[in-house]
Amino acid sequence: MKPAPFAYHRPETLDEALAVLAAHGGEAKPLAGGQSLIPAMNFRLARPAVLVDLNRITELSGIRQGGDGLHIGAMTRQRAVERDPIVARDAPLLAEAMPFIAHPQIRNRGTVGGSLAHADPAAELPAVMLALDAKLQVRGPAPRGVRSIPAGEFYTGLFETALAPGELLVDVTVPRAAPRSGSAFAEVARRHGDYALAGVAVRVTVDDAGRCREARIALLSVGDGPVLARKAAKAITGESPTPEAIREAADVAAAKDIDPPGDIHASPAYRRQLVAVLVRRTLERAFERARNG
Questions:
Q1: For residue range 246-261, what is the model confidence (pLDDT) as tens digits?
Q2: Among 167, 132, 165, 170, which residue's Cα sits nearest to residue 150?
């Protein structure tokens, strides 16, 4: 298949890109890494009249430390995040999850912002950013300007986000982890690189006595978008992370936090079973890491 005809723009600045998007309204689509959009265009599932290529906009790329946490430009390649020592030190959950994303060839081109804005419910990055309580900065044409959206409010439905027409995701801020925090990521796929049947990203914080002070448990591939397991987090918060308490929280996540879909690869019951196992394993690892600093 080949895509339907389209006009092509390759702006060099963010302002120029926003101007083109504003001029063409809903007929224009931004192009980041193209790992999802181009196949959709080839199958004519997406038929934008105008394609706005963001790859020359250098201000949208890069990883830097800020006073409010780690900043990752939306056009930063996934492979760069995977290999960056600052990410490994300041956002170990993100570093741990990156190798699970497709294959190296995909990560060489795929961008952080492209994956987050595409909002695939089986994608790893949305769930990781939800577990990390990240903030997503989006920018629209004047006078709309810049706004910051918590990851928990960014995803609104199946392949839907809080991005308004003409807006672009420009930056992601990962807050600094509190002392005595630990994290872990796990997923199950039919083959490495395939979309996960279910996955879990966890970050926990413990107090001086070793009890759970805060837990964020984000699930992927079990709903219309990333799912924050609030009931499971509530079940473990304030508790000593004993095997029994962890297992109870995992069972709560599987039974009460999700209503998973079924397909040819996994039934809803099987996805619930996977969530129970994965939440238990990731919580165990996260608490161990929190205790060991």
A1: 999 999 999 999 999 9
A2: 132
Q: How far apart are CA 290 and CA 107, in angstroms?
A: 29
159-168 pLDDT, tens digit each? 999 999 999 9
Nearest partner of 278 among 186, 215, 207, judged by Cα: 186
**How many Å apart are CA 99 and CA 108, to the nearest integer?**
12
Rounded CA gap, 51 and 29, in Å? 5
pLDDT classification of 35: cutoffs 50, 70, 90: very high
Q: Decide if 136 contacts 153 (C-beta within 8 A).
A: no
Evaluate whether 44 touches 1 at the Cβ level (below 8 Å).
yes
Q: Are residues 118 and 210 in the same domain?
A: no
CATH number of residue 36's parent domain? 3.30.43.10
Q: Which residues, other chains included, contact 282 with Cβ-Cβ below 8 Å and sequence gap of 6+?
A: 184, 185, 186, 200, 201, 202, 217
Whether residue 63 contacts residue 80, with contact meaning beta carbons closer than 8 Å, is answered with yes
Structure tokens at 24: 């063409």
Helix (H), strand (E) at residue 200: strand 196-206
**Residue 93 confidence (pLDDT) above 90:** yes
Order of strands across the sheet that contains 196-206: 181-189, 196-206, 212-220, 227-228
Host domain of residue 32: 7-53
Q: Do 69 and 165 fall into the same domain?
A: yes
